[in-house]
């Protein structure tokens, strides 16, 4: 397992990315995230990459993907082609899952959301704790011994967090921006915290062949990303991503978490916030410079 976080990458070694899911229009929050990643790479003489996160086949649409390219080009961003698309990457996810399975770190889980909520809300459990993968899994399907035999395919697979974190020990990364509570610099997360606040995350969803947390780590490494720029909403997931990279012997990038763009009531923008879609501002005659100004760049 790899041990060291990357420190703070600079110059030509700086590679950033924007990784939207084509499940709706890009809004001002996406514009901010994409422009920031692009400008940081360009100013350092590094590379800005794009990745289409379309593992959710039911919600991803080619027309949203086309609109993403169109909006980003209009904003003045450019990136090397071909663009990585997660729907082309199943063999890489399978290889990663096979490896974690062979390490005895995955187990099949047949719980649905309702089962998990019921088990996590049992009186002896106290209030259920929610982490980056939803409610911290109460362990209903977790086996005593690591399962053997071939990796099962059409079932959800969870990471046995206690076992995984015992292998890696504390996980560390360099934060070059700031977390939601101002966390910055060298961040270390202990195995106890990983187990208590994240728990047994799903790394393969039934019918998907992977899950966001696994795909993002495998793909950031495959694209050679050295600085992951993304919003505060994903800060809690970062220790999980670092842990997965460590288990798979992948380089650990540095992270730059940024503020979220909010509407006038203070609510953060969501995908369905069509009112703040870049396409809508464009249709109303806005210029790219207007968008930069609106997001405070
Ligand atoms: N695809 C994710 C989203 O659209 C972003 C993932 C990431 O930046 O790590 O929210």
Helices and strands in order:
Blueprint lengths: L14 E4 L9 H17 L2 E6 L9 H13 L9 E2 L4 H13 L3 E4 L3 H8 L9 E2 L2 E2 L20 E4 L1 H8 L2 E5 L9 E5 L1 H7 L4 E3 L7 H11 L4 E5 L6 H10 L6 E5 L19 H6 L4 H7 L3
Parallel strand pairs: 1-2, 2-3, 11-12
Antiparallel strand pairs: 4-7, 5-6, 7-10, 8-9
Helix pairs in contact: 5-6, 7-8
Approximate helicity band: 25-40%
Structural class label: alpha/beta
How many domains make up the 3D coordinates? 2
% residues in beta strands: 15-25%
How does this model look, in words?
This protein has helices at about 30-45, 60-75, 90-100, 115-120, 160-170, 190-195, 210-220, 240-245, 280-285, 290-295, and strands at about 15-20, 45-50, 85, 105-110, 130, 135, 155-160, 170-175, 185-190, 200-205, 225-230, 255-260. The protein is of the alpha/beta class and about 300 residues long. The strands form five sheets. The chain has a three-stranded parallel beta sheet with strand order 1-2-3. A three-stranded antiparallel beta sheet has the order 4-7-10. Strands 5-6 form a two-stranded antiparallel sheet. The longest helix has 17 residues, at about 30-45. The N and C termini lie far apart (about 40 Å). The relative contact order is 0.20. The model has no long low-confidence stretch (mean pLDDT about 95). The structure holds glutamic acid (GLU). Glutamic acid binds near residues 20, 216 and 234. Glutamic acid binds near residues 20, 21, 53 and 230.
């Amino acid at each position: 397992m790899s041990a060291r976080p990357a420190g703070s990458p600079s110059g030509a070694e700086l590679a950033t990315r924007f990784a939207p899911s084509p499940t709706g229009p890009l809004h001002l929050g996406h514009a901010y995230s994409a422009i920031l990643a692009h400008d940081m790479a360009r100013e350092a003489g590094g590379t800005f990459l794009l990745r289409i996160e379309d593992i959710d086949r039911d919600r991803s649409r080619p027309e949203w993907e086309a609109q993403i390219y169109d909006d980003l080009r209009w904003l003045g961003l450019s990136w090397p082609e071909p663009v990585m698309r997660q729907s082309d990457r199943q063999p890489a996810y399978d290889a990663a899952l096979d490896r974690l399975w062979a390490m005895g770190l995955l187990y099949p889980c047949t719980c649905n959301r309702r089962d998990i909520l019921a088990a996590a809300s049992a009186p002896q459990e106290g209030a259920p704790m929610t982490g980056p993968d939803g409610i911290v899994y109460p362990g209903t399907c977790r086996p005593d011994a690591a399962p053997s035999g071939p990796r099962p395919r059409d079932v959800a697979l969870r990471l046995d967090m206690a076992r995984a974190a015992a292998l890696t020990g504390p996980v560390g990364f360099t934060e070059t921006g700031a977390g939601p509570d101002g966390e910055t610099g060298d961040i270390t997360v202990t195995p106890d915290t990983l187990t208590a606040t994240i728990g047994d995350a799903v790394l393969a969803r039934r019918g998907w062949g992977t899950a966001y947390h696994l795909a993002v780590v495998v793909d950031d490494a495959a694209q050679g990303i050295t600085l992951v720029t993304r919003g505060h909403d994903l800060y809690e997931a970062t220790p999980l991503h670092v842990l997965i990279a460590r288990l798979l012997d992948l380089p650990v990038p540095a992270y730059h978490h940024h503020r979220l763009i909010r509407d006038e009531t203070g609510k953060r923008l969501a995908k369905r916030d069509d009112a703040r879609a870049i396409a809508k501002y464009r249709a109303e005659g806005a210029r790219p410079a207007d968008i930069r100004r609106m997001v405070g760049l």
